[in-house]
What does this fold into?
Amino acid sequence: MASVFALEKFLGRPAIVCEDGTVISYTDLCKETKSLAATVNQGLVFVLCTNTIGSLVGYVSFINNNTPILLLDGQKDIDIIKYLIQHYSPRYLWMPSIRFSELGTGIPRYEYQNYTLVEMPFRAAEIHSDIALLLTTSGSTGSPKLVKLSKANIISNAESIAEYLDITSSERPITSLPMYYSYGLSVINSHLIKGATILLTDKAVIQKEFWEFAKRERATSIAGVPYTYEMLRRLRFFKMDLPYMKTLTQAGGKLNAKIAEEFIRNAEECGKRFFVMYGQTEATARMSYLPQEHALEKYSSIGIAIPGGSFFLMDINGNEIIDHDVDGELIYKGPNVSLGYAENIADLSIGDENHGVLHTGDIARRDADGYYYITGRMKRFVKVWGNRCNLDAIEQLVKNITTNCACAGVDDKITVFVTEAGLENKIINYLSNKMGLNIRAFAVKVVASIPQNASGKILYAELQKMLE
It folds into this structure.
């Protein structure tokens, strides 16, 4: 198969701009990726990702030159990395040079921009020819369970995203998400295939350096999870002087409907675009988007399937739901659906098991216009005195009082975690009235912070442990 990124089409154009002013052109990128690829023989490469030149050049090099890779958080604890090494016996690691001493094994073979290629003492594993990229499943970066993706998955999803966002070579997205996260990676993929310029930073949106860089380098777009937009709201984003930033995208979980409406309305008034999107790592990144012309009218919707994809709903008996406004499991079909999962090295020899169909595990409904609304997760339900309660829906209710919250539960008890004291009675009474349940069904626990991963997604498994 052809390269994912046709770098030669954009020679001379800037591909990457860093905070320190370093510029890497597509000519440079083409040269450096070929140089790195020439040092790698057959086998799996672990890429310990950071939002830096070395990391990004490594990713592009391996993907373009048919070297299968696993992307990992470059700051992840070394014991977790070693645990994954034991499971998958990588032939190489592409890692921050400063971390090589932690590894305790391997031979340095190549260096570029503070990154080192380390050859490991393992034989090359048998890897199916369709597997190009491995990503950790959401919220489980210490788990050996990986999503297997092909070049075809990556290309189809990047092209689809570029189509509905109207991405051209003039775009300058800023990296507000880590590149090992499928959403953050999709921003890179969908822009590099169009010859755009990536503004590369490892700063967070709450840091002033992030915004100084965005303004100085005329950033045109930003991507964020719900937590990102809760932060941007506090930072009074629409008061910032960012005349070139025209596009805002949101995925990675359900954004509170009121906040979504507020951002859509403010964006429209300021001549910007706010896209609500929906996706999963198992679908490479994106499965749906909310078209601009219906954004205000349907602000709580995930929209419609991306170009090339389609949705349908299935009831508990496995029958397709034809009527609108009926809940069922959301099923997605498209060329971006992953090949399946791997949980050990033997699974890497297996090809496509999904055949373009993904059972999302999300509960959704479709309105009369064909727009979809996520109403919960199949596993995010508890029974309270015989009543089936959707923890995601309850969390959205609580966000009308405080956005810094999360819900977990066991049968007959729903616990709301908040970071602000003094709201306990207000939340319990509010939920009791809204849901028609006795106040004894609810508990409120004040914590220093809501546990989240590096992408801003809530770690519900950690909250569940706090109930035990």
